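User: Fold this one for me? It's ChrR-like cupin domain-containing protein.
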Amino acid sequence: MPPARFDDRQVRWMPFGDMPHFLFSILHIDEPRGIADVLFRFSAGQQIVLHRHLAANHTFVIQGEHRLYEADGALREIRPAGTLTVSPASEVPHREGGGPDQDAIVLFSMRPEPGQKLYEILADDGTVIADITLDTLRAIRAA
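Assistant: Here's what I get for ChrR-like cupin domain-containing protein.
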């Protein structure tokens, strides 16, 4: 059986500020449960900004390879298409990106505790430069 191909022509991709190598699409925010389902698109062969996940994340790789990198850029993990990962909140900063030949498309189901941040965006020295919360996603969706 030939591998399935994901057709993302109907996805409304948006940049996140001036963050390079990264697009996203908010699919759904479950208000009563505080869960956000968002597609992320990571450019092939690139790494995005340093950040850390402060809420639990369930991820499913739809296309390509989802690559995780240490803060210094060293490759930590490769998740091929079809991989489901359930990750708790973590203070460990990292970068993410697509594999060498194809953009990675990954479904993130973010599951924060009430009032918990989703992410912190970090400068290369580890300084927090932005907080991402469910309110951030709500404001983006409303705009």
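One thing worth pointing out: The mean pLDDT is 96.
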